[in-house]
Amino acid sequence: MITVADLRAASLRLRDAMEAEADALNAADGALGDGDLGVTMRRGSRAVAEKAEDLPEDFGMALMACAQAFTKVSASSYGTLLATGLMAAAKEAKGREGIDPDELPALLDAAVTKMMARGKAELRGKTVLDSLDAMARALTRTDDPAATAVQAAEDAQVAFRSKPATVGRARIFGEKSVGMDDPGMLAMTKIVKALTGR
Amino acid sequence: MITVADLRAASLRLRDAMEAEADALNAADGALGDGDLGVTMRRGSRAVAEKAEDLPEDFGMALMACAQAFTKVSASSYGTLLATGLMAAAKEAKGREGIDPDELPALLDAAVTKMMARGKAELRGKTVLDSLDAMARALTRTDDPAATAVQAAEDAQVAFRSKPATVGRARIFGEKSVGMDDPGMLAMTKIVKALTGR
Amino acid sequence: MKKILNDPEAYVDETLAGLCAAHPETYRLVGEEGRAVARTTPGRDGKVGIVSGGGSGHLPVFTGYVGAGLLDACAIGDVFASPTSEQMADAIRVADRGAGVLRLYGNYGGDVMNFDMAGDLVEIEDIETTTVLLADDVASAPPEEAEKRRGVAGMVYAFKIAGAAAEAGLDLAGVTRVAQKTADACRSVGAALSSCTVPQAGKPTFEIGEDEMEMGMGIHGEPGVWRDTLRPADAIAEEMLDRLLADIEIGGGDRVSVLVNSLGATPHEELYILYRNVHARLKAAGAEVVMPLVGRYATSMEMTGVSFTLCKLDAELEGYLKAPCDCAFWIVK
Amino acid sequence: MKKILNDPEAYVDETLAGLCAAHPETYRLVGEEGRAVARTTPGRDGKVGIVSGGGSGHLPVFTGYVGAGLLDACAIGDVFASPTSEQMADAIRVADRGAGVLRLYGNYGGDVMNFDMAGDLVEIEDIETTTVLLADDVASAPPEEAEKRRGVAGMVYAFKIAGAAAEAGLDLAGVTRVAQKTADACRSVGAALSSCTVPQAGKPTFEIGEDEMEMGMGIHGEPGVWRDTLRPADAIAEEMLDRLLADIEIGGGDRVSVLVNSLGATPHEELYILYRNVHARLKAAGAEVVMPLVGRYATSMEMTGVSFTLCKLDAELEGYLKAPCDCAFWIVK
Ligand SMILES: Nc1ncnc2c1ncn2[C@@H]1O[C@H](COP(=O)(O)OP(=O)(O)O)[C@@H](O)[C@H]1O
Ligand SMILES: Nc1ncnc2c1ncn2[C@@H]1O[C@H](COP(=O)(O)OP(=O)(O)O)[C@@H](O)[C@H]1O
Ligand SMILES: [Mg+2]
Ligand SMILES: [Mg+2]
Ligand SMILES: [Mg+2]
Ligand SMILES: [Mg+2]
């Protein structure tokens, strides 16, 4: 079972990883966008890590507290979408002490649905949605959820590399964006690696 | 006798010299001032040279026409003072076909007097006034007025180099200006060289 | 980093503190986090409220346009970053005089998502809200995808015209209609000559050669449509106006306002050199230029460059454009 | 050269053409060479005229301040260069409404000599003139030689206050007295972070390191009193205010206006960060800040940097400062 204790430890790893990757994420976002994705992730994950000690024992409420901490300091597209997804997952897990890894696909699907509504984007548009969807699909058939999640995020990132961007400022550089990672997908790979400790 | 024909030829030499020296004069003025002295002299001497063909045969009126041509395109301190001095000399020479070299000290003194009134500055303040005054003094006792004028301008420039500036923006850098040429004195040396063809 | 600041993290809060200290008759900070600014003298009861919001670093946009005949309140994010939905909700609450609130802001992902969430937050408090998005930057999407374009300096017209409509007593639907009409009537394009520096980043957002310019660049330094050596003013003006006129028809008998806007460092002298060209060309096309705006109306801090905005007017829009307004950055008598 | 222009030689004429095309209700070109600008609606008969003049590249100074309650006319030189005495005489002639004309301008060698000559030129035409020189830059000479100081942003106060006095009907001696009182009440100091480029020169006037600033620099790029690494905003504000307060006493009960002015590129955000500090300090000293001005009031094109001006007020000056005025850059209602 994944518990609030796991969440606490994961949030500290996430903060350290984002601290280390901030410049790289800024640079990836800056290639065709405004170059703030590293700032978003650093500020957001710092805020979440600061709350780690005080997270409630209800797993759903703990996810909600993470979302609120993140959104209070970062309102960029990515930060807002992540918080939206976390809140959706939080509702599913409310009143429970933890979740079982095989519930992950359902939580991810709930997150993606809300994120699509919030961001008015579709799947297969080369965004973080595709990373989350790929993880949800892969996690339905695995014994090693951590490794599977990381692999799925990485595979999705690579698979979509050859597609043109469809959201944000990068979209107007259709052809130029082909061959480049979507910064949000790249970030999700790094996030999942940090959360799972790989 | 110095005639209007001499003035015409001299004005063309002056234009060519100022064309060549503009950057050097800008740089000298820029060390402690606004760096526009080369612009002043280039624009002014171009305007005078353009009028060369049309100068009236009355030597005084010809000097007046030079002053007006200069002042129409350049209203900096230096340009305005030169024009003021030229106008004063013009009054002295009005109605004549030319002047004798031994009249030069009187013309220069007339110019300096008016320039002092216009610029509210004194002699011995390390300005163009001191170059003109030095020439006036030296020209009272010479057989070779051209060589003497050049020598006097150069000597004055060098002699005042070790004094602090007293006019314009350079003044506030009292000590820093010691050892530097006054840009207006430097310009006068170059002007006299060009006018006399040395 | 050629910026005058203390702690980069305090850039926005210190700016707002100075703004409110300098103009206490116009601006006051509201909300828990001090990231919403409202009119010191609120609109009268029953007036439709207008709020905007977005990242800092664009003064007078957004906060500067809080004032009589303009915005009622504004939520302010960090430099080039969206405010949070809570901050936006603060702005909406203070702007509400019982007749509902128009959310009027630029089409940017973070801003849209957060203003949507803010709308959800205040809905429970029975505050009715509507939304009009500015999407005037023609370089940010082709005409077929016009709704995906980003909002830039055109929002100045929208603030002014919607603000006057609200002052004139139109209801929420009416103010929203007028704001949407204005948004539809505006087209903008920008050209940048140098970057600006986001305080928290500490270095220029993009590199650009000493003799280069970029056409169509975004106001946060997002890449434009071409980069090449710097062209003469008239060539720049002509291409920019071409790009706008390709997107909106303006001809004989039309009345149009034009904003020639500095992105920050470009001085008034150069704006007027450009305006001279634009004015002559619109006049030659038979159009009448009404109340041209030349100056710094929507900036990216110290970025060098300009943007042009055309706002095609009908009698209703022209009347509201010319109506009085009063803030620290713009007075119409 | 990060400038938007056509022919460098045409920079000033094209700027003036654009200015007059954009604001025909305010500005019109007069004089043979088109280098004088006058109010489109002249002051009423019998009003004292006020003219200024000087080099271009400082908008809104000088030309921008032609307008009701401000200047009647202005002579415009090339960038950073004095206008000619003929151009100044043109401005004086058009400003004369039969009650004489005040020449109100900054203390620069070329300007002084030429305005003196212009006075001689119009004297024969029976136009009475007086002169008040602005010499507010404390960094340009010590207090013992205060009359040798150069004129900088303090002239904005002089234009405004003298303009209101003329509008109020004072005679030439009265307007001259009020203008001189304002000049005596103003102190300024500037700090530059980067140079600007004179179009005809084509390269920056001075070199300054990426992390350097210069205190006391002149508005044409003349060297200042020290150059060092860039300091935090509060340290800059404190030193600049120190330098002003060392020169003019301001304490409990005093009323003072303060101008926090961008030299061009420095954005409003940073001006407010500085203002915040100045405001707090003047308040702590017991002084009341009246009508603070924060913005681009006197620039050096795209130069990065700021200047502070203090204008110590009595009841007469305060009344005129707050009186209405109207030009394209400044409206007081
Ligand atoms: N509407 C959207 N739907 C889904 N994902 C989105 C959307 N907008 C942005 N993203 C994701 O967020 C990433 C960019 O985030 P961010 O840098 O925060 O955007 P911005 O700076 O434009 O607000 C993209 O790479 C993409 O993966
Ligand atoms: N008031 C004055 N009296 C005499 N000479 C002066 C005066 N002012 C300036 N000069 C001379 O002019 C030179 C500077 O001229 P210029 O560059 O035109 O000044 P600015 O740019 O300050 O108008 C000085 O080096 C000095 O020789
Ligand atoms: Mg981004
Ligand atoms: Mg962003
Ligand atoms: Mg000079
Ligand atoms: Mg000069």
From TrEMBL, chains A, B:
GO terms for cellular component: cytosol. PROSITE patterns: DHAL (PS51480). Residues 5-197 form the DhaL domain. GO terms for biological process: glycerol catabolic process. Keywords: Kinase, Transferase. One of its GO terms (molecular function) is glycerone kinase activity. Pfam families: Dak2 (PF02734). This is Dihydroxyacetone kinase, C-terminal domain. It comes from Jannaschia helgolandensis.
Automatic annotation (TrEMBL), chains C, D:
GO terms for molecular function: ATP binding; glycerone kinase activity. It holds the Pfam family Dak1. Keywords: ATP-binding, Kinase, Nucleotide-binding, Transferase. Residues 7-330 form the DhaK domain. Gene3D superfamilies: Dihydroxyacetone kinase, domain 1 (3.40.50.10440), Dihydroxyacetone kinase, domain 2 (3.30.1180.20). One of its GO terms (cellular component) is cytosol. InterPro entries: DhaK_dom, Dihydroxyacetone_Kinase. One of its GO terms (biological process) is glycerol catabolic process. The keyword DNA-binding does not apply. Transmembrane segments: none annotated. PANTHER family: TRIOKINASE/FMN CYCLASE, TRIOKINASE_FMN CYCLASE. This is Dihydroxyacetone kinase DhaK subunit. It comes from Jannaschia helgolandensis.
